[in-house]
């Protein structure tokens, strides 16, 4: 079996976080408070797709949003390494 690698779509994951926040009735301020952040800049970076939460923050988000980390992440496909060459297989 060849190794499999996932490619996370950062911008789409940000959109997913924003969507889940809205569906659950949370504001950025609510998340900021739940995570104990002094300011909301990190959360704005997540929802804009400029950065991703740390693993610890993904766990907190998943619990806050009553979903799994996999349901927050948007993965665009797998990259399979064959004979030292990378092939990207899009799954949509």
Residue share in helices?
40-55%
Q: Enumerate the spans where pLDDT stays under 50 for 5 or more consecutive residues.
A: 81-92
Q: Biggest sheet, in brief? A: 3 strands, antiparallel
Averaging pLDDT over every residue, what do you get?
85
Task: Provide a brief overview of the structure.
The chain is of the alpha+beta class.
How would you sum up this structure, described in words?
The protein has 92 residues and is of the alpha+beta class. Helices cover 48% and strands 21% of the residues. The chain has a three-stranded antiparallel beta sheet, with no helix packed on it. Helix 1 crosses helix 3. The longest helix is centred in the first third of the chain and has 14 residues, at 10-23. It is elongated. The chain starts with a strand and ends with a strand.
Jot down its keywords:
92 residues; alpha+beta; 5 helices; disordered C terminus
Question: What is this structure's SSE topology?
Answer:
Layout: E1 4-8, H1 10-23, H2 28-35, H3 41-48, H4 55-64, H5 69-72, E2 75-82, E3 85-90
Antiparallel strand pairs: 1-2, 2-3
Helix pairs in contact: 1-3
